TrEMBL record:
Name of protein: Delta(3,5)-Delta(2,4)-dienoyl-CoA isomerase, mitochondrial-like
Organism superkingdom: Eukaryota
Keyword annotations from UniProtKB, A to Z: Fatty acid metabolism, Isomerase, Lipid metabolism
Family the UniProt entry places it in: Belongs to the enoyl-CoA hydratase/isomerase family.
CDD domains named in the record: crotonase-like (cd06558)
InterPro entries for the chain: ClpP/crotonase-like_dom_sf (IPR029045), Ech1-like (IPR045002), Enoyl-CoA_hydra/iso (IPR001753), Enoyl-CoA_hydra_C (IPR014748)
Pfam families found in the cross-reference section: ECH_1
Biological source species: Galleria mellonella
Designated gene of the protein: LOC128200026
Pathway: Lipid metabolism; fatty acid beta-oxidation
Gene3D superfamilies, alphabetized: 2-enoyl-CoA Hydratase, Chain A, domain 1, Lyase 2-enoyl-coa Hydratase, Chain A, domain 2
Length: 305
């Protein structure tokens, strides 16, 4: 073992020594939004909370747009390595803000020309799609904590996250069909993949049947169920902290390749990770992590990415 370590260290002696000694000192960027509260409860862990509690975190135009802007900023922010997403107030989210939906659609319906009316509708759909997809586009893993109601647009959001946890009182409803809409912001694409059952996904989309926390666990919609929100948040932040302590080069490549591979063949996914790792294997993180594993010295400090 000693000779392996020696050979690793000899490869990059100065860089390893200097980065192992590095201490965390950078200030976290905590931009706030009209409808989102952002905090940094642990090193490199950003907590984003849907923050329209009196409106049950329903999606109005501001929330759709804030989500996009926030996740783009977190994607860019090297201080952020993991995101925890939850909702303030009584429910995680009661879905789209129906008042805002009616207002927007009434305005579009005033347009006479069919092509122009269709273009306006497409504009809204694309804007909402971009918002939900921003969780997936974000290079950092997104851990979602859901409590009480998670309805309509809420289910679209959580299926774009990397990992979902919920409380015992959580319930889920793909409710679009009940408002006369075929979900168009990702649930039809992502839910079957997340739970791995086209049959269950289709049943939930066609019927808008409510799913309890225990059923969500049994169908694979969530990874774990916690007794209450405080316990859940403590546990999810601990999981986030563990992920944030890993090499961000490795963690972000894992997400990039998993997202890339979900719509492609195994051969295409393998080619992608081959190219990605041909670059990432040159990172100092591998040397540092290998030394730490070989010497049983715990996780080293990795530079932000
Ligand atoms: C291009 C479009 C693509 C996107 C499509 C997305 C579709 C969807 O999201 S479909 C799902 C839409 N959401 C709903 O249908 C939920 C409706 N709400 C409820 O069923 C209940 O409110 C709920 C079970 C969530 C909670 O019940 P609770 O008793 O706890 O609270 P309430 O007293 O009912 O509600 C409190 C106030 O919030 C207002 N509110 C609730 N949901 C919505 C909503 N979706 N949009 C707008 N406002 C909502 C409710 O009216 C109360 O307001 P106030 O009377 O002023 O206190």
């Amino acid at each position: 073992m000693a000779s392996i370590i020696k050979s690793i260290v000899l490869n990059k002696p100065n860089k390893v020594a200097s980065t192992l000694l590095r201490t965390y000192s950078a200030k976290a960027d905590v931009t706030q939004y009209e409808t989102l509260a952002v905090s940094v409860p642990k090193k490199n862990v950003f907590h984003v909370e849907l923050n329209r509690p009196d409106k049950l975190n329903t999606f109005n135009d501001a929330l759709w747009d804030d989500l996009t802007t926030c996740f783009k900023a977190l994607h860019e922010n090297p201080e952020c390595r993991v995101v925890v997403l939850s909702g303030r107030g009584k429910h995680f989210s009661a879905g789209i803000d129906l008042k805002s939906l009616i207002k927007n659609f009434t305005k579009v319906n005033e347009i006479d020309d069919t092509a122009r009316k269709a273009r306006a509708y497409a504009g809204y759909i694309k804007r909402y799609q971009e918002s939900i997809s921003s969780l997936e586009v974000c290079a950092k893993p997104v851990l979602n904590l859901i409590h009480e109601g998670c309805i309509g647009a809420g289910v679209n959001v959580i299926t774009a996250a990397d990992v979902r946890y919920c409380t015992e009182d959580a319930w889920f409803q793909v409710k679009e069909v009940l408002i006369g809409v075929a979900g168009d912001t990702g649930v039809l694409q992502r839910l079957p993949k997340v739970i791995g059952s086209a049959s269950v996904a289709r049943e939930l989309c066609y019927t808008a049947r409510k799913v309890t926390a225990q059923e969500a666990l049994s169908i694979g919609l969530v990874s774990r169920v916690f007794p209450d929100k405080d316990t859940a948040l403590t546990e999810v932040l601990n999981i986030a902290e563990t992920i944030a302590s890993m090499s961000p080069v490795a963690v972000q490549a894992i997400k990039q390749n998993l997202v890339y591979s979900q719509d492609r063949t195994i051969a295409e996914g393998l080619e992608h990770i081959c190219l990605l790792n041909a670059i990432n294997h040159q990172s100092e993180d591998i040397t540092k992590a290998a030394i730490a594993q070989a010497t049983k010295t715990g996780q080293p400090d990795f530079e932000n990415l």
